[in-house]
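Appendix C: a fully annotated inverse folding record. The material below is reproduced so that readers can follow the format used throughout the book. The structure is listed first as tokens, followed by the designed sequence.
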């Protein structure tokens, strides 16, 4: 990752198809567009790739989360469970739906801890959003089993694991719906963009209508004359994004194959280091290999190790300090900071309660993140770059022995 590393003639050709018609809108202009419907084509191919019956393209991964929750009828005061290690978008979309995010710990899979999930379900839980973080699958069978036992729908946040699988089935197709992101740093990118996939026709129709002001997309009627079953919003994808998406999707399997080679090469160097262990991956064959996550025995050793890696120009990400992805660092959430003068959604919520997110409420995750380092895995990696990384690891391992 990211997919722009392999932009080429294919993306250019797809964009030119659109520019030649002049139609940037995914709907209407039937004559002018001469049969070019890039977003519709992207949806069709994406659904097929995932093995899902339906795909709805939207303007971003964040929008995909919002649209999926709208389709399920998530309402103010509902609780939606997600995990304390994810991109802020996951819980922003929950709050934007009027619902209340509830956070589980992650375990050494770096995804939702199924035991903590069980503990956090209440009579008000209306959806569960596990996140396949850093390119690899969550234990989605266990999570769906817990959800099914309680009759609660699952939305898989697959924004970071596009193309991944679990027991041979594509991630994003285990729950009621799966969402994807094609933002600038994702495995395949359209600049901005997202997708919802589902096998449920009623949910798909809800997504399709909600994401476009409630239009029911009746193919026979003129657009302005279409019916509306409910109010919606605008989360549409445009034709230029759809065009790039088509070119990128065609490269996805090759992207994953390259990443797997590079991940294995970096991992081989780390395997030589005493005390290093690796992230637990529930179904390793389904890993998209966009990241390599590893542990050292304790926090102090981890920070020292990464200090040497950084000095050698091969620093890893220390997610414990990451303000975008890790619960204890979300100061705006903990502080209930909002532009709304009433304090919504933190104050005066529909239940008349104030929400309170304490930064220290996920101690198990904090313990794990204290000793976690992560390398992003590039699609293109020169031999020189690999040499730099391996040399840095060897140097860090040496200095670790001296400690
Ligand atoms: C990127 C991301 C999103 C949001 O996608 P955007 O397209 O950037 O809005 C949601 N969830 C996760 C886990 C992500 O990494």
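Designed amino acids, in order:
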């Amino acid at each position: 990752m990211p997919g722009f590393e392999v932009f080429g003639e294919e993306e250019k050709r797809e964009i030119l198809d659109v520019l030649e018609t002049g139609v940037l809108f995914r709907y209407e202009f039937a004559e002018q567009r001469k049969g070019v419907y890039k977003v519709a084509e992207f949806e069709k191919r994406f659904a097929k790739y995932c093995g899902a019956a339906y795909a709805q393209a939207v303007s971003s991964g964040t929008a995909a989360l919002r649209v999926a929750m709208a389709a399920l009828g998530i309402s103010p005061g509902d609780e939606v469970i997600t995990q304390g290690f994810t991109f802020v978008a996951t819980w922003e979309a929950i709050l934007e739906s009027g619902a209340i995010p509830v956070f589980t710990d992650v375990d050494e899979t770096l995804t939702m801890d199924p035991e903590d999930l069980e503990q956090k379900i209440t009579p008000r839980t209306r959806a569960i959003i596990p996140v396949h973080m850093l390119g690899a699958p969550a234990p989605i069978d266990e999570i769906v089993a817990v959800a099914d036992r309680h009759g609660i729908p699952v939305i898989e946040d697959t924004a970071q694991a596009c193309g991944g699988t679990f027991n041979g089935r594509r991630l994003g197709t285990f729950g009621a719906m799966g969402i994807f992101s094609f933002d600038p740093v994702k495995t395949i990118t359209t600049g901005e963009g997202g997708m919802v996939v589902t096998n449920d026709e009623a949910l798909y129709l809800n997504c399709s209508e909600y994401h476009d002001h409630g239009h029911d997309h009746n193919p026979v009627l003129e657009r302005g004359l279409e019916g509306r079953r409910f109010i919606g919003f605008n989360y549409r994808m445009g034709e230029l994004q759809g065009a790039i998406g088509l070119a990128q999707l065609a490269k996805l399997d090759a992207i994953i194959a390259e990443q797997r080679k590079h991940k294995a090469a970096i991992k081989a160097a780390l395997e030589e280091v005493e005390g290093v262990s690796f992230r637990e991956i529930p179904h390793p064959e389904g890993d998209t290999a966009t990241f390599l996550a590893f542990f050292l025995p304790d926090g102090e050793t981890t920070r020292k190790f990464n200090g040497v890696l950084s000095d050698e120009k091969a620093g890893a990400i220390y997610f414990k300090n990451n303000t975008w992805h890790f619960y204890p660092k979300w100061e705006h959430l903990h502080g209930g900071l909002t532009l709304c003068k009433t304090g919504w959604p933190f104050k005066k919520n529909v239940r008349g309660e104030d929400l309170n997110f304490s930064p220290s409420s996920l101690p198990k995750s904090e313990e794990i993140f204290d000793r976690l380092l992560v390398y992003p895995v590039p699609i293109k990696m020169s031999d020189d770059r690999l040499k730099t990384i391996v040399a840095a690891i060897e140097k860090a391992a040496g200095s670790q022995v001296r400690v």
